[in-house]
Known about the structure:
Blueprint: H1 11-23, H2 32-48, H3 51-56, E1 61-68, E2 71-78, H4 83-90
Amino acid sequence: MKDLLGTNPDREECELEEQELEKNGLQFELTRRRFMQTAGLLSAAAAVGSPGIAIADNAAVQPITLKVNGKSHTLSLDSRTSLLDALREQMDLTGTKKGCDHGHAELAQF
């Protein structure tokens, strides 16, 4: 029987490799049940995200005053908020459009 590399390992080689893996604590048997449990856990973790990160960043909220169209507006914004997001989401000035929604280029018209 050929392995994934297309070679024919003999029984002694396989046994030696298994012993080496077991000695180092790396041998495990992947069952269908174990695979499904792990896949479900990883999917749930990806869907939920990391709520601890968002909680830790709440201290970065700062008051800021913007003068737009001749009027001063005082807002409490996260330090990562872009000018575009502040105008659109906090001040409801939706005439400004996002170009890509990645925040790298801030491709927008003011």
